[in-house]
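User: Can you predict the 3D structure for this chain?
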Amino acid sequence: MTEVEKAAAAAAAEEKGHTKEDLQIALKAERESRKALKTQLDELNQWKQQQQEATAAAQQKADEAKGEYKSLYEQLQADSAQTAEKLTALQEKETSRIETLTAANTARIKDLPEHLRLLVPEGLAPDAAAAQISQLEALGAKDDRPKGGRAGSGGNQDADAIPAEIKSAVEAEAKSRGRDPTAWYKAHKPRWTRKLKALTH
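Assistant: Here is the predicted structure, written as structure tokens:
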């Protein structure tokens, strides 16, 4: 309040019957009221700023969490894709193995003596069929042993010896199936005998 305003206020107060002391009291009360109002305004501004800062911090935290969730989701997606690729590769490998084993089983069944072929049930799983065929091949080898004489005698050894004309072929075929050449020859002796006759006639 300027001096002029103070003087005017004092004159007005005097006209209304107020003393100078009354005017000073009124001015003091006005200053305190303004001071209290300013304090309230400052507190309000401070509270508003705190709210804004809290909101910004919460938004930043939410954004960070969102980024983490996105990163985790992308990682899970990548892991899932890799797992699917590995599973597909394993399935393809197993399919190829089964196809190869099935073809080998078919060839081995054809090589069995006719009376043993019926002992391989249709619809048997390839691995089980391979095991069954191996047992039948061993049984066929026993059936092909010369009658009479003891095992290990000179006559039996000569009968089971692989003829030189077909020895390389027997060894190659046995090796491709992971079998012992002599055992393989014994198991399929009738077939090899026919091949030997065809070569020597």
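Confidence is low (pLDDT under 50) at residues 145-157. The CA atoms of residues 56 and 133 lie 76 Å apart.
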